[in-house]
Please model this.
Amino acid sequence: MAISVAVTGMYTLTPTFRHPTRLFSPAPFTTKFRPRASSTTFVETQTNPTDSIVVEKSASRSSNSLACPVCYDSLTLSSDSQLSVDTIPGSTLQCSTCQKTYVGNRTHLDLTTTSGAKSYGEPMPASTELFRVPLISFLYERGWRQTFSIWGGFPGPEKEFELMKGFLKPVLGGNIIDASCASGLFSRLFAKSGLFSLVVALDYSENMLQQCYEFIQREENFPKENFILVRADISRLPFVSSSVDAVHAGAALHCWPSPSAAVAEISRVLRPGGVFVATTYILDGPFTVIPFLSTLRQNIRQVSGSYISLSERELEDLCRGCGLVGFKCIRNGLFVMISATKPN
Model:
C-alpha cells in the first residue's frame, strides 16, 4: 500500500534567506550584521528575490510509512485506493503483527494506542488537553495564533514558511509530517506549495483535526490527493522507522508532555539526512533577571505540562541527545526556529 505519490517535474521557489545561520536579531528583519559578546552571533538576514531553489520531485523512498503505534510494523490498507483526505472515511488498516485494526472516520485516521477503546482512556497534561477543547480549536486561527507575533516575536505563518524552506531544501520533494499541526495552518501551506509528495497533518486533538478538515473543504483546488490527517501521540508516532523525509512542529515543542520523548520519536522516523524543523520561544535575555526562574519553570511544568526553554543551548542539547546533528537556529525576540538533521 502506497501513501506517498511519485511526482515528476521541476519546481522553483524564492527563499527568504540565503544561508541558514545561528541567530536572527530580535529586531525586525533588516540587513546588517553585528557581533554579540558570546560564542553565538546575531545575524540579520537579507531577502534576495534572485535566489532560487530548483527541486526535482522523485519517487518516495518508502511505499508505506504508516505503522501500528503499538508495534511499529507497517499497516496494510484493506482497499486498493491510495489514502487521501477523500478516501480516509471508512478506510481500514491492519497491523499484521498484533492484528489491531484502525478505521478512518469522516475527517482523520486515529492511530493512537487507545484507538477503538470503548471504556479506557488516559488524560493528558493540561497543555495538551487545552487544545482538545472545541472553542480553543475554533479560535486557533481566528485570533489565537495571531497573538504570537505580539508577545513572542513570531514573524507570522507566511514569513515562517519562507524561513523554513531554507532548512528543508535538502528534502524538498519528499514526504513531511506537520507534527502538532493544530488546525493545519502550515499543513495546508505545505500541501499548496507543491514542494512535498505527501503531507501528513498530525495532532492529538480531534477538534483541531476537525478544524483542519473544514478549512480544506472550503478551499478550491486544494491538493487532497497528497494530504492525510492523522490523530497520534507525539511520543508514539505511527510511522515506520527511517521512512520520513521531514518533520515540522510549529509553536508546539513547549506544549509537549515530554520534549525528549517526542524528539526521540521524530529522530526514529526520520530517514538518514531527514530534517527536523520546529518553532518555539525562549525566555532568555531580560528574563534571566527573574528570581528563581528555573524553579518557576519547574512549577509551571508540574501544573500545566508545558516546557519553557531558557536558552538555545537547551534546545541544542535536546536535539543532540536524541541523535540529531547540525543544529541551527534563527531568533527574533522570544521566537526561535530550530533545525537539526538525522545523520547519514
About this structure: Confidence is low (pLDDT under 50) at residues 1-51, 57-63.
